[in-house]
What does this fold into?
Amino acid sequence: MLAHEYYHVLQFDAAGGSLGWPGTPRWMIEGAAKRSEIVFQGLPAGERRDYLAKGAMGNGELCGDGDPYAVGALAIDWLTEQSGVDPLEFYRAIGPSPEWGTDAFTNMGTRWEEAFEATYGTTPASFCEDFEVFRAGAELVIMASLTPHTTDGATRPFVEVVGSPPRFMVRALRAEVEALQEYWLDRFGAGADYTVRITDRDASQDIRGLPRSYGGGGSLGKCLSSAKLAGLVVLDATCDWSDPDGSLSVLRGFHRDMVIAHLTGNIPSATYRLPIWFRWGVSRYTGDHYNRDNGGYTLVRADALRSLQRVGPLSESGEDFDGLHNIGFLAVEWLVERAGEHSIADFYRALGDAARDPRDTPDPRDDLPIELANGVAWLVAFESAFGLTTEEFYAEFERYRERLR
It folds into this structure.
């Protein structure tokens, strides 16, 4: 922590007394300071890169919703290696705030971009694209190094018990995992492959050092902690697991994510970009149907219908539309009625194939080049699984929405 804050002092001094430039992304400021912590520990370059790459896994895109500390530290480390330029040179290039009322002051919101290009010889936008391609490759190497989740090669959750947790709770949790696997196999033709560790101690203690997903791995205090990218969920069986809308709902969500990971071949999410309505739609559709038979929140469709007036067209929606996850449920429901429930598994299977080797993937939009991280894979997978292009779907779904109103 001391190294982190001291680096901020160095940044402040290099910039001539100000870090408050409008528009300068937090990942540049906090990422460099976070990296300095790791450099201070004296790790060799290779070990440092692996450590930073694991910390960045699942933490969003650099020029999007990525964690400015975890993703930013990896970005600054890679940028420094590629350019051979000390990160403090950027702050020397941006310099102190210009005098109030001058043209430089009026236009200073874009000066950080000019300083970035002058320092590193590339634009911030180009760097972000190149970084995500690098990051996807680094994540693939990490995923390949993780140990298998099962001991016999079967696609199933592998349950291990550590310590002496209450036997009745172990039985209940085993039954829940088995029910989840049976549900997904029966309804969607796809199973999950991961490790469930049931303990008699604080679950969060078992996750340290493993690549986690955004928000600390979906942890719920001492009762549940998950390292999704390592395929491990740890449950403290001494907690109360009777509420299906509490910790149990997180376990159910973890199982869903592990089904998707298996179908895509553990392709990191940085290699494809699914719209939020689809991600939440799949989550709510599969969860709602499971909860109908196993307890939990079951008014998802009613919520979705109430959201019809609040949310604009799916084709124009971004990440912040209120109720977009509810409309996503209706959209996935419509797709399933058209193509069958197995189409969800077909989509993620095709997504993994397209994202793994985009060079062999036909581009559904002639004017868009194939690149690893440009989001084409999901368009290809969508048409393959559901039998229509995204443009056709958006048009037909809007007509369907009009009939529901």
